[in-house]
Amino acid sequence: MDNNQRIHKCTTLDCKVPGFRKLSDLRRHQHSHEAPRFFCPVRTCKAHTRGFKRKDNLTEHQKRVHEANARASMVASHDSKLSARAEPMEDEEMGNESPPLALMAIKDGFDSSLSPKEFLLAKLAELRTSRKKWIEQKDEEIRAVEKTLFLINR
């Protein structure tokens, strides 16, 4: 048998992959035809709702996309012995005057002319505006689909 032959074929009807040399590669590929099972724990991430079909893809996504946040939360959890899950801080913990590490992990950058509180308020306003635009866009899409359904049912 030639080592370049792809003898293991996917049995899914619409699959266009030519084949696999190893049975283990075929089995891993067959999982990609199943429903997504691995979701990103970051609620604001697209992958939180879309998900991944393989766990290694989720792991790679977390390393690439959320690496800065992960490092910041690891340092924070080590220092304050909090769980890795983001939880609201108690008032007595807020007495610390230094900005939280999560602030430093924000990718949009920090305007040094603003105080950390002003920066966060501006970021919050930006996120709320973005959310409103997204909701308006989805409402338009819903209306378009409803109109199409109405026209089909005439």
From TrEMBL:
Compositional bias of kind Basic and acidic residues: 78-88
InterPro entries (alphabetical): Znf_C2H2_type (IPR013087)
Signal peptide (from-to): none
Domain spans labelled C2H2-type: 8-33, 38-66
Region of interest: Disordered: 65-97
SMART domains associated with the record: ZnF_C2H2 (SM00355)
Highest taxon listed in the record's lineage: Eukaryota
Listed name of the protein: Similar to transcription factor Zn, C2H2, partial sequence
